Amino acid sequence: MFNAGTDTSSATILWTMTELVRNPSMMRKAQEEVREAAKGKLQVEESDLLGLTYLRSVIKEALRLHPPLPLLVPRATIEDCKIRGYEIPRGTTVFINVTAISTDPKSWENPEEFRPERFLNSSIDFKGQNYEFLPFGSGRRGCPGINFSVVIVELALANLLHRFDWKLPEGMSVGDIDMEEAYGLTTHKRTPLCLVATPVTG
Fold first, then answer.
1. Contact 90, 80 (CB under 8 A)
2. CA dist 44 to 125, 152, 199, Å?
3. What is the separation, in whole angstroms, between the first and last Cα of the chain?
4. Which residues, in sequence order, are bridge partners of residue 164?
5. CA atoms within 13 A on the CB side of 114
6. Which of 50, 51, 111, 151 could form a disulfide with 103 if both were Cys (CB 3.0 to 4.6 A apart)?
7. Integer-rounded Cα radius of gyration of the chain
8. CB within 8 A of 5, min separation 6: which ones?
9. Quick check: 158 pLDDT over 90?
């Protein structure tokens, strides 16, 4: 459980930073929100997270486009059932493709576009009640570490944005960022993200 929680959280942080550096105006907006919430502090604390609505929307959008477990954990049917005319026998292994669900144009406008604003005035959340957005699964078999991992991701990202300005290395442009995914249970970037961090003073 510990390995699964840390691996998926680090992947989410990496994908979120990747999307932000590809969208500088969104990066600035998230930084402004975080720096205002933690004004006068060396670091963002858990008590500061409540007001970070834009950052939370950024994380949701990153989870929508890059769910840590794109096929969730396999399930097995406990009895024979029929779904849309298909007979599914008892004991069948079932995979839920949450990537396909969260980029379905029937549920999402411009589904391939990174647009955190879609979550700002929306009640859609990742707690398993909105079936168009299930990065943590749903029901009894949903991710047991959701509350822990969400706070860890929010705190880590908030502090990265609070204490540093971020840019691509000299000579590299947004178009040079490789967005290919690596194969594995958890969705990681195929190539590491390389950024230049400049400490923020004052």
1. yes
2. 23, 12, 15
3. 39
4. 199
5. 20
6. 111
7. 18
8. 145, 148, 149, 152
9. yes
pLDDT over threshold 70, residue 202:
no
Sign of CA dihedral 69, 74, 80, 86: positive
Length of the chain: 202
Q: Which residue has the tokens 């390995």?
A: 3
Does residue 200 or residue 126 have the better pLDDT?
A: 200
List phi, psi (to 5°) of 93: -80, 130
Chain position carrying tokens 């105006």? 25
Q: Which amino acid is at 173?
A: S
Query: Model pTM?
Result: 0.90
2-199 belongs to which homologous superfamily? Cytochrome P450 (1.10.630.10)
Which of these ranges, 25-29, 41-45, 63-67, 145-149, has the smallest mean pLDDT? 145-149
Count other C-beta atoms under 10 Å from residue 134's C-beta: 23
Task: Tell me if 66 sits within 8 A of 11, measured CB to CB.
Answer: yes
